[in-house]
Amino acid sequence: MEYKTASPDRYGLLKAFARENRQNMTVAERILWDELRNEAIEGHNFLRQYIIGDYIVDFLCRDNGLIIEVDGGYHSEPKQQENDEDRTEWLESHGYHVLRFSNEEIMYDLDNVIEKIEKSLK
């Protein structure tokens, strides 16, 4: 996995935005974070709102480069879908693996979400 941090002129902005995101998590992010934190899934450690390149990913397991993104309703908009595809392509080109879940999947089918995450960690 190749790690690349943000350009120096953007890093401060991204760091502040990541801090704000951690303090203002969505309901779905909070539910998933409660499952991921403190090595709750097979002893893996996850970080939240982590900066990689010029992106802030929702959750990252640095052990194996697994990124988990939680997609709210606006992710169904065509322009956002295009942006998400570009973002995923860039992250995967740097050795990461990206899993995306909708808010609804996390809130109403959490067991299935956790199962998919556990499979990706093996």
List keywords for this structure.
122 residues, alpha+beta, 5 helices, 4 strands, globular
What would you say this structure looks like, in words?
By secondary structure, the chain is an alpha+beta fold. It contains 5 helices and 4 strands. The protein has helices at residues 8-23, 27-36, 78-93, 103-108, 110-121; strands at residues 47-52, 55-61, 66-71, 97-102. A 4-stranded mixed sheet has the order 1-2-3-4, sandwiched between helices. A hairpin with a 2-residue loop joins β1 (47-52) and β2 (55-61). The chain is globular. The two termini are 17 Å apart. The model has no long low-confidence stretch (mean pLDDT 85).
Helices and strands in order:
Elements: H1 8-23, H2 27-36, E1 47-52, E2 55-61, E3 66-71, H3 78-93, E4 97-102, H4 103-108, H5 110-121
Parallel strand pairs: 3-4
Antiparallel strand pairs: 1-2, 2-3
Q: What proportion of the residues form beta strands (DSSP E)?
A: 15-25%
Uncertain residue ranges = none
Supply the helix-strand structural class.
Answer: alpha+beta
- Arrangement of strands in the largest sheet: 1-2-3-4
> What's the N-to-C terminus distance?
17 Å
Shape: globular
| Count of helical stretches | 5
| Global Rg | 14 Å
